[in-house]
Amino acid sequence: MQIPSDHPPIKSPKTGVLLVNLGTPDAPTPSAVKRYLKQFLSDRRVVEIPPLVWQPILRGIILNTRPKKSAAAYAKVWTDKGSPLAWHTAAQAEALAARMGDAADVRYAMRYGQPSIEQQLRAMKDDGCERILLAPLYPQYSGATTATVMDEAYRTLAGMRWQMALRSLPPYYDDPVYIGALKTTLEAQLAGLDFTPDVVLASFHGMPERTLELGDPYHCHCRKTARLLSEAMGIPMEVSFQSRFGRAKWLDPATDVTLERLAQEGQKKLAIFAPGFSSDCLETLEELAMEGKHQFEEAGGTHFAYLPCLNSGEPGMDMIEHLVRRELSGWL
Ligand SMILES: C=CC1=C(C)c2cc3[nH]c(cc4nc(cc5[nH]c(cc1n2)c(C)c5CCC(=O)O)C(CCC(=O)O)=C4C)c(C)c3C=C
Ligand SMILES: [Fe+2]
Ligand SMILES: [Fe+2]
Q1: Which of 63, 66, 108, 245 for a ligand 1 pocket mutation test, highest count of atoms within 8 Å of Cβ?
Q2: Domain that holds residue 137
Q3: What are 119-178's pLDDT values in tens digits?
Q4: Gap from CA of 278 to ligand 2 centroid (Å)
Q5: Would you say the ipTM is above 0.95?
Q6: Cα–Cα distance, 234 to 148 (Å, whole number)
Q7: I want to staple 222 with a disulfide (CB 3.0 to 4.6 A). Which of 204, 254, 269, 316 is the partner?
């Protein structure tokens, strides 16, 4: 049948994959960090304090003090390619696109900052993606990470008359392929050290303890990842939670306190890694590799190694490809 000449262009339907990570400032400057923190810390999934109470604290105190301090920390890890979180995520999307070929249109988005979830979903729709797999790159589920990505995607879809079909990647904290990727990466990293650690420490991003009481599975997911990995590798593993923010009680034990305790107890050679972060970022490169090293050595530690995240290395990309292909079943 002939298509009328005034009919809008018909695109061939495509399947898309949108990898999503947290996001990062555009530059290591107080003004860029302020913009980023304002968006991030105004998310009610991240700070669960009523806005009438929280917004005056955020705008009146935090956004006038923290950006300068955080910008200085970002400056220490910034590279000529930009923020580590941004370029690692871009590299993951590029590597996955190469692996998927014509089967899927692969892109990435950031929950806070650029490129936004809305911008990417709309661009993918314009380019003919009728089915999209949304893949938040958080192995362990939490309201503050996974759920807010889903909220944002559905907010975008709420503004569309003709929506695409959407699937989402479930948390993969106990998936044998994730545990296997961590094991392969860690074993190679440990074999490359010039010392044998007395202790291996898995540091996860922290959360207010209240979120556990309210039913967030994050704490259990972290614990289970560490237990499965420790069993798979046949070595004991310490677990801690980093990056405490604000005055509320956060999950215990804290990474900084744990580093001091281990050194003081005589475990003077330590390797630390961050299995909950799919790519290296401020929290791993500055807080663990720099600040953590300093804290451990101040407390008497003699040997410290930070072991990088999966990033876009082969084991991590094998894992992402496996998870994505599994979730695209029936769509490819
Ligand atoms: C209430 C505050 C915060 C909660 C809750 C929180 C949860 C959370 N965050 C990540 C992952 C990352 N966080 C990063 C930076 C970061 N996190 C907070 C606060 C909370 N995070 C702040 C204020 C910052 C910015 C830096 C600073 O000022 O200290 C990052 C790194 C971003 C980067 O640009 O490199 C990641 C990644 C998870 C996984 C999580 C809950 C499970
Ligand atoms: Fe955080
Ligand atoms: Fe931090």
Answers
A1: 245
A2: 14-171+316-327
A3: 999 999 999 999 999 999 999 999 999 999 999 999 999 999 999 999 999 999 999 999
A4: 13
A5: yes
A6: 35
A7: 204
